Amino acid sequence: MSQNKNTVPNTTVTRDLRELDKGTDNLYESIVIISKRANQIAVDVKEELNQKLSEFASSNDNLEEVFENREQIEISKHYERMPKPTLVALDEFLHDKVYFRNPSKEQD
């Protein structure tokens, strides 16, 4: 992914709920936005991982022929160490890096 994940913590951080509703004036709307963004990030990361791991796939997978591939293990470990999509989405939302709109509010 192209975004800088160095600023996103890998662990859970206690958040002030009043920070979450600043952009929308509604906590639940903010949570829905963060959730949808987290799903987008998760899909992107999964596609990226599957693309990298597909390079190691062989056409004839027999149980006898399965062996450890160091590069494949390192790639998997790298993706396991990455921050979870929810944490990335929350960080993006709090730093105003997420574009969102509510069509029902725009009609008013």
What keyword list fits this structure?
elongated, 108 residues, mainly alpha, EC 2.7.7.6, DNA-directed RNA polymerase, Pol_omega/Rpo6/RPB6, 5 helices, transcription, DNA-directed RNA polymerase subunit omega
Concise overview:
With 108 residues, the chain is an all-alpha fold.
Structure description:
- With 108 residues, the protein is mostly helical.
- The protein has a domain at 17-55 and 65-98.
- It has five helices and no strands.
- It has helices at 17-20, 27-54, 70-81, 85-94, 103-106.
- Helix 2 (27-54) runs antiparallel to helix 3 (70-81) and helix 2 packs across helix 4 (85-94).
- One of its GO terms (cellular component) is DNA-directed RNA polymerase complex.
- It is an enzyme of class 2 (transferase).
- Pfam families: RNA_pol_Rpb6.
- Belongs to the RNA polymerase subunit omega family.
Strand content: under 5%
* Helix-strand pattern: HHHHH
Number of helices, where a helix is a run of at least 4 consecutive DSSP H or I residues: 5
3D shape = elongated
Main sheet specs? none
Q: Estimate percent helicity.
A: 40-55%
Q: Which parts are unreliable, with pLDDT below 50 for 5 consecutive residues or more?
A: none
End-to-end gap: 37 Å
Mean pLDDT: 82
Rg over CA atoms: 19 Å
The strand count comes to 0
Quaternary class: single chain
Which structural class do you get from the secondary structure elements?
Answer: mainly alpha
Keywords: DNA-directed RNA polymerase, Transcription
Protein name: DNA-directed RNA polymerase subunit omega
Catalytic activity: RNA(n) + a ribonucleoside 5'-triphosphate = RNA(n+1) + diphosphate
EC number: 2.7.7.6
